[in-house]
Amino acid sequence: MAGWIHMVTARTPTNIAVIKYWGKRDESLILPVNDSISVTLDPEHLCTTTTVAVSPGFDQDRMWLNGKEISLSGGRYQNCLREIRARAEDFEDNERGIKIAKQDWQKLRVHIASYNNFPTAAGLASSAAGFACLVFALAKLMNAKEDPSQLSAIARQGSGSACRSLYGGFVKWIMGKEENGSDSLAVQLVDENHWDDLVIIIAVVSSRQKETSSTTGMRDTVETSMLLQHRAKVEVVPKRIVKMEEAIQNHDFSSFAQLTCSDSNQFHAVCLDTCPPIFYMNDTSHRIISCIEKWNRSEESPQVAYTFDAGPNAVLIARNRKTAALLLQRMLYFFPPSADTDMSSYVLGDKSILKDAGIQGINDVDALPPPPEMKDKVPAQRNGGEVSYFICTRPGRGPLLLSEADESLALLDHSTGLPK
Amino acid sequence: MAEWIHTVTARTPTNIAVIKYWGKRDESLILPVNDSISVTLDPQHLCTTTTVAVSPSFDQDRMWLNGKEISLSGGRYQNCLREIRARGEDFENKEKGIKIAKQDWQKLRVHVASYNNFPTAAGLASSAAGLACLVFALAKLMNAKEDASQLSAIARQGSGSACRSLYGGFVKWIMGKEVNGSDSLAVQLADENHWDDLVIIIAVVSSRQKETSSTTGMRDTVETSILLQHRAREVVPKRIVKMEEAIRNRNFSLFAQLACADSNQFHAVCLDTCPPIFYMNDTSHRIISCIEKWNRFEESPQVAYTFDAGPNAVLIARNRKTAALLLQRLLYFFPPSADTDMGSYVLGDKSILKDAGVEGINDVQALPPPPEIKDNVPAQRNGGEVSYFICTRPGRGPLLLSDESLALLDHSTGLPK
């Protein structure tokens, strides 16, 4: 391979909306019908890693996702590439003899390799993390000077929810008013240290069927649901946004939980109000909700918030570690592993939560007593297999460049520019 | 037992709403936040039979439901008894030496025995049929002169949806404006012969859990769902107008589109409630997906679906031929468990099995995948999700039964047979 290869590797988190984005006012620019708020998940547990490389020796833009080459011809990828190229600046690395003038970026081709450390099939918003990482990494590669909010407006054009992964902590995607979308971008409400008591447990629910894609689904909802318009306007989401910002600022977990659960349920309600109706949650999702609702109501104030995206997985947010351990006990009580499952592949991420919950192995799971709030209604048997596994995580930081000195983390070979 | 016993036996249908009632503006009078429209189901297949008896020798009001004595002290029963008693007229039967003056009804006590020919646990709106039958039978017993609409206003105070079982065919429950509920009653839109092509197949879905009661559920929705108010004020009134038109014109496409959309919106506002209410389950969703896929595959909708406060599907086919095709699809996707006998898997009008070319379990196993899923044929078909099916049709309203052998109370003791 003649010529130099300049390469950058970044790691980006995924995020989960607590006030949901569902419905666009502009399909090509990806402008939403309402604001949304999310919590960024710790990239130590769930993340996308992306290496982007540029070289005069590359003759076309190419991308590999989780090892497999994919097409970059779609509008979303083209949008991101075009927008970052337009903002590129001069770059020079004297040691390696690399000198790129601002206008050269239009002609230079890039190689991209991206890898999610969680399965796409798990429905954990891999495209959000993926596009955010792509945009962030390309911006670093091309020496663009844009700040995270400006980058979020570009990531937005790849995937709406991606714009919220440009920051850690709690993030708001402002819907904007402008037709060209220049003011539709993400801002950070608070960083990942502001409310670091929170512990998040995700239940990855076994799903037999392919979900309706978010893009198609939300378009059908906009076109056919009379309830959606009412949700997006002054009446519902705008008021919830204000209250949610306040709850986050004040560490008011009760309000946070009540708003989060309500908004998740309302999102699924408008999905049901669509023609044809969309069902993202399944019986297991409903059982998880019932379990949480019963517990919350048996205590003086809510212990756990739940939220579901466009799939059956539950994202459960506990007020603190102690509560998270109690939550995990309940989850393992109601959703034990199948007989042949090994505990350490049943609880992933921050596995130390198992110790807090007093669980070492499957015997401890079998020995769990029924939670106090259901003492009148202990089920005859507890069936395994409804939940594939759990992931324990927490609110986390935004995108990071991985040290250029540590080449071992790069996904492209530094001399060929091809996936390792 | 010395004295006379005067009895009357009636049979009432149940009904299924196609534009749903969910939410009250007055809890004690049972006044709804919007109009609703229903189709009455053929009482030959699903009905409540009620015998009411009066005798000077009865010392208290008593009621037996499906053989078990129940309390009549609750507000809903008291409302119905009081309202009918207030409308009792003179009654005389010279042969049996019975002479009751209008005012005597206040002092005379009644025995009531009621029987549903379908299980309460099946979630098939037994309280609607039951309370309608009670009111209808008592009115006949006490010689009240009220017409069906006036009786519906009384049945309404027992159970909202009961008011729609006082008529056959298609029925509308007008929400009314008066605070005292005097104008909140049912009227008949079209009788059971108006659109007699329709065939109805109900899938009774196996449900592991106890449902949230409608009364509690709809109160929570009224109190906590912001979307409900919008539904009641903006959406339902327009749908009522269109649905009446669809029924009048036998416009099945419009009927189906409205029925499915309203069922889904009802479940949407249940989900928008705190705490959220889930009446449909995975099997319900699979049934919907199956119908939606078929409907979209054809030029126009073949089947309408609607779900009440439970997982059971009520599927309305445009005609018998379509119903047979529907049954084939349902048996394909929801075969019986290995040990089930077909004669107990399809109830009601079982002759639909013949139309569908299905005699026994072998025919079920031999069913080919429907054309609309040819790209997506599932690897296996699992039984057990549906307990059984009932095939029925739109049907008539309440009727007096004159055959004494059908009475549920013994004519000499006034106690259940």
Could you walk me through the main structural features you see in this protein, from its secondary elements to its overall organization?
Two copies of one chain form a homodimer. With 420 residues, chain A is an alpha+beta fold. Chain A folds into two domains: 195 residues, Ribosomal Protein S5, domain 2, CATH 3.30.230; 195 residues, GHMP kinase, C-terminal domain (Alpha-Beta Plaits). Chain A contains eleven helices and 19 strands. In chain A, the strands form five sheets. Chain A has a six-stranded mixed sheet, with helices on one face. In chain A, a hairpin with a 2-residue loop joins strand 7 and strand 8. In chain A, helix 1 runs parallel beside helix 2 and helix 6 runs antiparallel to helix 7. The longest helix of chain A has 20 residues. Chain A is globular. At the A-B interface, helix 5, helix 7 and helix 8 of A face helix 5, helix 6 and helix 7 of B. Chain A: It comes from Trapa incisa. Chain A: Performs the first committed step in the biosynthesis of isoprene-containing compounds such as sterols and terpenoids. Chain A: One of its GO terms (cellular component) is cytosol.
Please specify the SSE layout and strand pairing.
The structure is a homodimer.
Chain A: E1 6-13, E2 15-19, E3 24-26, E4 31-32, E5 36-40, E6 47-55, E7 62-65, E8 68-70, H1 75-85, E9 91-93, E10 98-100, E11 109-116, H2 126-141, H3 148-155, E12 170-173, E13 186-190, E14 199-205, H4 214-224, H5 226-232, H6 237-249, H7 253-272, H8 283-298, E15 304-307, E16 314-318, H9 321-334, E17 347-349, H10 353-356, H11 362-366, E18 387-393, E19 400-402
